[in-house]
Amino acid sequence: MSEPKRLHPITIIFNAAKNVKEVIIPLLLYFAVFAFKDGINTKLLMWAPAVIVLAGLVLMGVPAFISWLRYTYRVEDMELRIEYGLFVKKKRYIPFDRIQSLDFSEHILHRPFGLVKVKVETAGGNDDSAEAEMSAVKKEEAEALKRLIAEAKNSKNPNVISEEEVEVEKESILYKISQKQLLFIASTSGSAGVVLSAIFAFASQFNDIIPFEKFFDELQHIVKAGYVLLGILIIIGLILAWIISVVMAYLKYNDFTLKVVENDLVITRGLLEKRTTTIPIRRIQAIRIQESPFRQPFGYASVSVEYAGSAIDEKAEGLIIPVVKKNIIGTILGETLTDYSFHPEIIPAPRSAKSRYLFMKFCIFAIVTLILSIWLWPYGLLSALLIIGASVLGLYQFKSAGYSITGSQLTLRYRGIDQQTVLMKKNRIQSVDMSVNWFQKRAGLASVETSVMSGGNSSAKVKHIRLEDAKEIYEWYRPNIVKADHGNI
């Protein structure tokens, strides 16, 4: 049993900041309107904002202090026990058996004080949030708590385990990003579209404040001045969005390190915010190798894992290698993830499937091109480039499609924009679905979709493979049927 402990006092500032964040925009708008309103007494105008801010700090600071004062945590009877609540005291007891990992992150305000934010991940937890979060804990205490829980779970007599008796876990580095790789992944992150979408989404919240009508009137003048000028402005905007995405990726993946610690994969990354993510190896359901159009020509790929019992709040949480030469993935992970074959022999889709990948895309974009050509004649004719682009994409999707069965492992390879290669063990697959539509039936083709249990119940699907191959996958997965190692066929 350990004595109840409180979080670091800086938690008061964090709690108050959360409250301020929710009201900051309305306050700023109020001050803007108040300052320019006619008929307001000058002295009142001078003192009113200060009084409002002072009152706000008191109203937000007092609850933040009480929340910190009433929040305690301790370890007792194989449980992490947390008590909290502003007015009503709540208790949350989390058994060690349910705790999958303690993930750490460090913000800028954490580092000077040697603090970390602790996120408790549990089996069967909510997909959108952790079971519990402790916003400011001494790093040494967090590490000791993590080791204590791990040792207690592995010990036959956990009641006699104390923090002093816990041994430091052995670890080895599997991968550490180099500066060259960091610059490469930042330059090819492809997040410019995400940045632009975020800008438009943010701007759309202020329709009443931002003079969009005036902006579009000016834009019409620019269009009338010439399409060349408009094109230059668009290019400049895309370049700025790309630069922002590069900086964001650089900050996010800086010092990315993958370690194996006992039976866990531990990932640390980030410059401004240092994150530590722990993935229990036994909880890994599938391995996903992703090759983007920007990285595949250079032979690079990224590796992520689907794992159960995770509260994944962003895609990168399952990313274990952000960029690496594809041909050395097996060398890096082979000794740790020994059950997986990283270089299976892929059986490709038949040549008769090629037209299936091209035909639908050609029809869709031909219709789009026709509409745009009529609507924006003659400039709409440039949309014919979409047909070429769609055809090229369809061709690459055909070349990517394939599967492999190697002992107890099923590998599916397919492409949306990025090429995905998903490695799955038979005992981790939740379902295998085989579908045959009318057009596929005539050509002797079928589609296969699988799903594994993870934080997002991830799936993989390959289209237009041979019907016989789809049946082979289905029969391989059916229970009580023993198959030979098809990788040797």
Automatic annotation (TrEMBL):
Key word Iron-sulfur present: no
A Pfam family annotated for this UniProt entry: bPH_2
Transmembrane region(s): 20-40, 46-71, 182-206, 226-251, 357-375, 381-398
Limits of the YdbS-like PH domain: 68-149, 254-311, 399-477
Keywords: Membrane, Transmembrane, Transmembrane helix
PANTHER family named in the record: UPF0699 TRANSMEMBRANE PROTEIN YDBS, UPF0699 TRANSMEMBRANE PROTEIN YDBT
UniProt protein name: PH domain-containing protein
Native source organism of the sequence: Lederbergia graminis
Upper classification of the organism: Bacteria, Bacillati, Bacillota, Bacilli, Bacillales
